[in-house]
Design a protein that fits this description.
NADH Oxidase, 4 strands, alpha+beta, 40% helix, Nitroreductase-like, 8 helices, oxidoreductase, 14% strand, oxidoreductase activity, Nitroreductase
Length: 211
Protein backbone atom coordinates (compact mmCIF):
# COMPACT_ATOMS: atom_id res chain seq x y z
CA UNK A 1 0.00 0.00 0.00
CA UNK A 2 1.26 3.49 -0.88
CA UNK A 3 1.36 5.93 2.00
CA UNK A 4 0.44 9.47 1.03
CA UNK A 5 2.04 12.45 2.68
CA UNK A 6 -0.07 15.39 3.79
CA UNK A 7 -0.10 17.23 0.46
CA UNK A 8 0.08 14.31 -1.94
CA UNK A 9 -3.62 13.65 -2.39
CA UNK A 10 -4.53 16.96 -4.02
CA UNK A 11 -1.72 16.53 -6.53
CA UNK A 12 -2.61 12.94 -7.41
CA UNK A 13 -6.37 13.19 -7.31
CA UNK A 14 -7.45 16.67 -8.31
CA UNK A 15 -6.13 20.20 -8.14
CA UNK A 16 -8.65 22.40 -6.32
CA UNK A 17 -7.72 25.53 -8.30
CA UNK A 18 -10.46 26.98 -10.47
CA UNK A 19 -9.23 27.19 -14.07
CA UNK A 20 -10.77 29.92 -16.21
CA UNK A 21 -8.27 30.27 -19.08
CA UNK A 22 -6.68 27.48 -21.12
CA UNK A 23 -3.81 27.22 -23.58
CA UNK A 24 -5.62 27.59 -26.91
CA UNK A 25 -2.87 25.73 -28.79
CA UNK A 26 -3.59 22.47 -26.94
CA UNK A 27 -6.15 20.27 -28.66
CA UNK A 28 -7.15 16.89 -27.24
CA UNK A 29 -7.64 14.19 -29.87
CA UNK A 30 -10.96 12.42 -30.09
CA UNK A 31 -9.16 9.14 -29.38
CA UNK A 32 -7.76 10.42 -26.09
CA UNK A 33 -11.07 12.04 -25.19
CA UNK A 34 -12.82 8.69 -25.65
CA UNK A 35 -10.13 7.02 -23.54
CA UNK A 36 -10.80 9.44 -20.69
CA UNK A 37 -14.55 8.92 -21.00
CA UNK A 38 -14.04 5.13 -20.93
CA UNK A 39 -12.16 5.60 -17.67
CA UNK A 40 -14.84 7.93 -16.34
CA UNK A 41 -17.61 5.45 -17.03
CA UNK A 42 -16.01 2.92 -14.72
CA UNK A 43 -17.79 4.97 -12.05
CA UNK A 44 -20.60 3.17 -10.22
CA UNK A 45 -24.25 3.70 -11.11
CA UNK A 46 -27.53 2.47 -9.67
CA UNK A 47 -28.10 -1.15 -10.78
CA UNK A 48 -25.46 -0.44 -13.45
CA UNK A 49 -27.87 1.49 -15.69
CA UNK A 50 -25.09 3.96 -16.71
CA UNK A 51 -27.37 6.97 -17.36
CA UNK A 52 -24.55 9.38 -18.28
CA UNK A 53 -24.42 10.82 -21.77
CA UNK A 54 -21.62 13.04 -23.11
CA UNK A 55 -21.58 15.67 -25.84
CA UNK A 56 -18.08 16.94 -26.70
CA UNK A 57 -18.23 20.50 -28.00
CA UNK A 58 -14.90 21.13 -29.72
CA UNK A 59 -15.53 22.89 -33.03
CA UNK A 60 -15.59 26.68 -33.28
CA UNK A 61 -19.09 26.51 -34.72
CA UNK A 62 -20.54 24.48 -31.87
CA UNK A 63 -18.65 26.50 -29.24
CA UNK A 64 -20.34 29.58 -30.70
CA UNK A 65 -23.65 27.73 -30.33
CA UNK A 66 -22.85 27.00 -26.68
CA UNK A 67 -21.53 30.45 -25.77
CA UNK A 68 -24.84 32.26 -25.13
CA UNK A 69 -25.96 29.37 -22.92
CA UNK A 70 -23.02 29.77 -20.52
CA UNK A 71 -22.87 33.54 -20.24
CA UNK A 72 -20.75 33.60 -17.08
CA UNK A 73 -18.18 31.05 -18.28
CA UNK A 74 -17.32 32.24 -21.77
CA UNK A 75 -13.55 32.40 -21.17
CA UNK A 76 -13.46 28.65 -20.57
CA UNK A 77 -15.54 28.08 -23.68
CA UNK A 78 -13.31 30.30 -25.84
CA UNK A 79 -9.96 28.88 -24.73
CA UNK A 80 -10.54 25.24 -23.73
CA UNK A 81 -9.78 22.27 -25.95
CA UNK A 82 -13.41 21.25 -25.52
CA UNK A 83 -16.50 21.72 -23.44
CA UNK A 84 -18.01 18.45 -22.25
CA UNK A 85 -21.77 18.52 -21.77
CA UNK A 86 -22.93 15.83 -19.37
CA UNK A 87 -26.55 14.74 -19.44
CA UNK A 88 -28.56 12.15 -17.54
CA UNK A 89 -30.77 9.87 -19.65
CA UNK A 90 -34.24 9.60 -18.15
CA UNK A 91 -34.84 6.45 -20.23
CA UNK A 92 -31.51 4.84 -19.40
CA UNK A 93 -33.24 1.56 -18.59
CA UNK A 94 -33.78 1.05 -22.32
CA UNK A 95 -30.14 -0.03 -22.38
CA UNK A 96 -30.68 -2.45 -19.48
CA UNK A 97 -30.90 -5.60 -21.58
CA UNK A 98 -27.82 -4.66 -23.62
CA UNK A 99 -25.83 -3.99 -20.44
CA UNK A 100 -26.87 -7.21 -18.73
CA UNK A 101 -26.45 -9.29 -21.90
CA UNK A 102 -22.88 -8.03 -22.10
CA UNK A 103 -22.31 -9.07 -18.48
CA UNK A 104 -23.51 -12.59 -19.36
CA UNK A 105 -21.34 -12.72 -22.49
CA UNK A 106 -18.26 -11.73 -20.46
CA UNK A 107 -18.98 -14.33 -17.78
CA UNK A 108 -19.72 -11.75 -15.10
CA UNK A 109 -23.31 -12.85 -14.59
CA UNK A 110 -25.31 -16.01 -15.20
CA UNK A 111 -28.26 -16.01 -17.59
CA UNK A 112 -30.54 -16.86 -14.70
CA UNK A 113 -29.39 -13.90 -12.63
CA UNK A 114 -29.61 -11.66 -15.69
CA UNK A 115 -33.23 -12.65 -16.29
CA UNK A 116 -34.15 -12.15 -12.65
CA UNK A 117 -32.48 -8.75 -12.49
CA UNK A 118 -33.96 -7.46 -15.72
CA UNK A 119 -37.40 -8.74 -14.74
CA UNK A 120 -37.25 -6.74 -11.53
CA UNK A 121 -35.26 -3.63 -12.47
CA UNK A 122 -36.90 -2.50 -15.70
CA UNK A 123 -40.47 -2.38 -14.30
CA UNK A 124 -39.12 -0.72 -11.15
CA UNK A 125 -37.46 2.05 -13.16
CA UNK A 126 -40.49 2.51 -15.39
CA UNK A 127 -42.60 3.16 -12.30
CA UNK A 128 -40.37 5.96 -11.02
CA UNK A 129 -41.87 9.43 -10.97
CA UNK A 130 -40.09 12.02 -13.09
CA UNK A 131 -38.63 13.55 -9.93
CA UNK A 132 -37.31 10.19 -8.72
CA UNK A 133 -35.69 9.39 -12.06
CA UNK A 134 -34.24 12.89 -12.25
CA UNK A 135 -32.52 12.34 -8.89
CA UNK A 136 -31.12 8.96 -9.92
CA UNK A 137 -29.65 10.06 -13.24
CA UNK A 138 -28.17 13.25 -11.79
CA UNK A 139 -26.47 11.45 -8.91
CA UNK A 140 -25.06 8.72 -11.14
CA UNK A 141 -23.95 11.14 -13.85
CA UNK A 142 -22.24 13.33 -11.25
CA UNK A 143 -20.16 10.34 -10.16
CA UNK A 144 -19.00 9.90 -13.75
CA UNK A 145 -18.32 13.63 -14.04
CA UNK A 146 -16.02 13.62 -11.01
CA UNK A 147 -14.26 10.53 -12.29
CA UNK A 148 -13.79 12.24 -15.66
CA UNK A 149 -12.11 15.15 -13.88
CA UNK A 150 -9.76 12.70 -12.17
CA UNK A 151 -9.07 10.90 -15.44
CA UNK A 152 -8.31 14.19 -17.19
CA UNK A 153 -5.91 15.09 -14.40
CA UNK A 154 -4.12 11.75 -14.81
CA UNK A 155 -3.78 12.49 -18.54
CA UNK A 156 -2.18 15.85 -17.75
CA UNK A 157 -5.17 18.09 -18.41
CA UNK A 158 -7.14 20.54 -16.32
CA UNK A 159 -10.89 20.83 -15.94
CA UNK A 160 -13.46 23.18 -14.49
CA UNK A 161 -16.98 22.04 -13.56
CA UNK A 162 -19.65 24.52 -14.59
CA UNK A 163 -23.16 24.60 -13.18
CA UNK A 164 -24.14 28.00 -14.51
CA UNK A 165 -25.85 27.36 -17.83
CA UNK A 166 -29.28 27.65 -19.46
CA UNK A 167 -30.55 24.24 -18.34
CA UNK A 168 -33.85 24.59 -20.18
CA UNK A 169 -32.11 25.16 -23.53
CA UNK A 170 -28.94 23.05 -23.44
CA UNK A 171 -30.26 19.71 -24.69
CA UNK A 172 -32.28 21.10 -27.59
CA UNK A 173 -29.39 23.31 -28.68
CA UNK A 174 -27.37 20.17 -29.36
CA UNK A 175 -30.06 18.05 -30.94
CA UNK A 176 -31.17 16.12 -27.85
CA UNK A 177 -34.70 15.57 -26.59
CA UNK A 178 -35.01 17.89 -23.56
CA UNK A 179 -37.68 15.67 -22.02
CA UNK A 180 -35.32 12.71 -22.05
CA UNK A 181 -31.89 14.22 -21.48
CA UNK A 182 -31.39 16.21 -18.28
CA UNK A 183 -28.36 18.52 -18.18
CA UNK A 184 -26.16 17.73 -15.20
CA UNK A 185 -22.93 19.65 -15.68
CA UNK A 186 -20.61 21.25 -18.19
CA UNK A 187 -16.88 20.54 -17.92
CA UNK A 188 -14.27 22.64 -19.64
CA UNK A 189 -11.08 20.70 -20.40
CA UNK A 190 -7.63 21.58 -21.68
CA UNK A 191 -4.22 22.74 -20.46
CA UNK A 192 -4.37 25.60 -17.99
CA UNK A 193 -2.80 28.84 -19.22
CA UNK A 194 -2.83 30.38 -15.76
CA UNK A 195 -2.33 29.21 -12.21
CA UNK A 196 -6.01 29.50 -11.38
CA UNK A 197 -7.84 30.56 -8.26
CA UNK A 198 -7.21 28.91 -4.93
CA UNK A 199 -10.15 27.95 -2.75
CA UNK A 200 -10.47 26.85 0.85
CA UNK A 201 -12.15 23.88 2.49
CA UNK A 202 -13.54 23.59 5.99
CA UNK A 203 -11.95 20.98 8.22
CA UNK A 204 -13.43 17.48 7.88
CA UNK A 205 -14.56 17.43 11.52
CA UNK A 206 -16.73 20.49 10.81
CA UNK A 207 -19.23 18.45 8.81
CA UNK A 208 -18.59 14.86 9.94
CA UNK A 209 -20.41 13.05 12.74
CA UNK A 210 -19.37 9.69 14.18
CA UNK A 211 -22.09 7.59 15.82
Amino acid sequence: MTTLKNNDFSDIAYNRKSIRVYDETVKISQEEMLEMIEEATLAPSSVNMQPWRFVIVESDEEKANLKPLIRFNTRQNDTSSAMILIFGDMLCYEFGEEIYDKAVAEGKMSQEVRDQQIGAIIPYYKNFTKAQMNDVVKIDSSLAAMQLMLSARAHGYDTNPIGGFEADQLAAAFGLDPERFVPVMVLSIGKAAEVGYDSVRLAADKFTTFK
